[in-house]
Amino acid sequence: MSRIGVLVVAYNAASTLARVLDRIPADFRARIDEVLVCDDHSEDSTYLVGLGYQKVSRNLPLTVIRHPRNLGYGGNQKVGYRWAIEHDLDIVVLLHGDGQYAPELLPQIVAPLEQGESDAVLGSRMMEQGRARAGGMPLYKYVGNRILTAFENAMVGTAFTEWHSGYRAYRTDALRSVPFEANSDGFDFDTQLLIQLQEAGRRVTEVPIPTYYGNEICYVNGVRYARDVITDVLRYRAHKIGLGTGETAFASTAYELKEGDTSHGRILTWLGAKEPSRVLDLGCSDGHLDELLRKQGHHVTAVDIEELPDARDRLDRLVVADLDRGIPQEVGGDYDVVLAADVLEHVRRPERLLADIHPRLGHNGSVIASVPNFGHWYPRSRVALGLFDYDRRGILDADHVRFFTRRSFERLVSRERYRIRRREALGVPFDVLRRGRPDAGPHPARPLTKLAGSLDRVGVVLCPSLFAYQFLYELEPVSRDVHGDLAPVD
Asked: Is there a single domain that holds both residue 214 and residue 283?
């Protein structure tokens, strides 16, 4: 049996709080372990009403607190969720003290959580066509809600009917798995928490709820709220593709497989056109890319500084070694392809690693290398504005110890006796966005994503040094003849 708590957030709710508590279904009260009324330093007698109800209530385990200062809508919830976690509750339901959301639906809200079908439940006023307007939702709020929801779905990769309902329930283990304490104290807290649950791969279910608009005072500044939630989802999208500090993409690894029109996707295309080959992958991470190469018929040996879970199962052979010390002898040689995808920027002496690749290559062997472009407009802008710092992922990844522009990298490979066989400039990976369910594939491209990707590709074609996010190369080794001229290695 799940331990259920109800968090009632209240601000100036003296006239509605008692009625909200009265409406909690009698047959559901026995299933509630705790009810916490959080009065957010109201200007009326909300706290006294709560204390009075506590004295007369016989079947509701009620606790009433008043904050010494106003914490804001989000700050009030943080207190409640900490309380739920500290009291070892399994489920916590968010209920508003102004009566806007129906307590009668508490059994339906918690059912998917109790049945193990979901980690969070959203009450949606938009699931049943026409119900929101029939319930009194003003037209401007209805239109704004639909537009914002569509935009948020496009940016985060979801398909919710509504992002902006305040009737929600969560499993406390899901709350523990996300950094909700870092969220805003304002009204966009709900949006940020939903983004975090999506990022963490948590299952989110919607259930239909009725719409009710009474005479309560609305404390939400609509323009500011819209600005804040748009900023939140744009920031998340930017962090997912490697632009920005990255904390909202906290559950994503910097090296997860990126298919499609990305360096990983192009590598799969390039090697897919080759006969089955012996491949040496330097810096394989979890081996997902190598798993796909093996499906193409290639034999893959890989080197990485650590063995990540299940990586060895995705490879023919894994050697654990620090590439800063060179390629270990046990790797051997005679490889058709040496893959250096997103690895040269991680070693202190990339020239040494490139030199060490030479004896590993077989006849007509080649190197496929990808490097982030420090000349991209994003790091250029950061430097120009005096805001240079490392990010969690992307071009300014905190683990990068070397930076390259197209010119500096091509000078490096020339010095280390390689000739460029082919080169591609790749744009920002706009399509890199995981669905919330861990078992789901990439979200299909949406119109805004397609538009942004198209504009970026035009920029890459017109000015690759400024718009290319990465450069991908196929290199062939060369040697010096007796006159000192460069010639291909036979």
From this structure: no
Amino acid letter at 460? Answer: V
Tokens 């962090």 appear where?
A: 239
Which residues, in sequence order, are CB contacts of 226 under 8 Å at separation 6+?
Answer: 144, 148
Whether residues 328 and 204 share a domain: the answer is no
Is residue 258 situated within a structural domain?
Answer: no
215 pLDDT exceeds 90? no
227: CATH: 3.90.550.10
Backbone angles phi and psi of 382, in degrees to 5 = -60, -45
Query: What is the 3-class SS of 388-452, one letter each residue?
Result: CCCECCCCCECCCCCCCCHHHHHHHHHHCCEEEEEEEEECCCCCCCCCCCCCCCCCCCCHHHHHH
Are 277 and 174 within one domain?
no
62 to 18, 206, 238, 285, 390: CA distances (angstroms)? 12, 27, 43, 51, 47
Q: Which amino acid is at 137?
A: M
- Residue (of 266, 316, 324, 258) closest to 290 by Cα position: 316
pLDDT (tens digit per residue) in 396-405 = 998 999 999 9
> Structural domain of residue 346, as residue ranges?
263-488
Residue 254 falls inside a structural domain: no
d(CA 402, CA 371): 10
Within this chain, do residues 27 and 73 fall inside the same structural domain, yes or no? yes
Pick from 130-139, 217-226, 381-390: least confident:
217-226
Is residue 397 within 8 Å of 344, Cβ to Cβ? no
pLDDT digits (tens, 9 = 90+) for 56-66: 988 899 999 99
Domains: count for the chain: 2
Q: How far apart are CA 449 and CA 432, in angstroms?
A: 10
